[in-house]
Design a protein that fits this description.
CATH class of the largest domain: Mainly Alpha
Order of helices and strands: HHHHHHHHHH
Number of domains: 2
CATH topology of the largest domain: Tetracycline Repressor, domain 2
Radius of gyration: 19 Å
Shape: elongated
CATH architecture of the largest domain: Orthogonal Bundle
Strand content: under 5%
Number of strands: 0
Structural class: mainly alpha
Amino acid sequence: MDKKEIILDALRELFKEGKAGTASVSDIAKKAGIAKGGLYYYFRSKEEVLDALVMREYEDIIQACKELVEQSNGNALQKLALLLKTYRNSYVDTSLDEYLHMPQNAAIHQKSLAQILSSLSQIISRIIEQGIEENTFICEYPQEYAEILMSVFTFLLDPGIFPWTAEQYVMKLKALADMLEKGLRAPKDSFAFLYSNN
């Protein structure tokens, strides 16, 4: 296995053990079974290891969404439902997620959300274009609609940022469904899948 991946796995283990916040570079290297100098060959600091781990975790989520959509023979609405359900059910280790939501980690959290938004909005943009070809959607701004949709999921609906009640959460999804239906001029209740499974 790649040494870089071993180091990232070691930090992930420290998160699971609840020790990542206080762990030093030496602790990470020890957990990885390498010399401290070996760790510095790949990363300049603990922050850099953390940054790489977060990016890897989110890249795994992005890849899973991408592969499911590519393997699907569904229409645009089915693909959108599949992608968003996969994203919403994706799992980031609780201890890592809690760490990201600490005020001092705002920069790395923001960077990870931007990565998700940027990557998944490209996939959603292509799905919207498919919907235009299928005459399900009418839209002049597929990329911008995709970015707005993902900004809701990555920011507004992030429970670590906004602790909405279950009812508030569903109302936001209903409003989003209404906006998408009207904005994309899609058939009535096309986006009901956003809130009907809650």
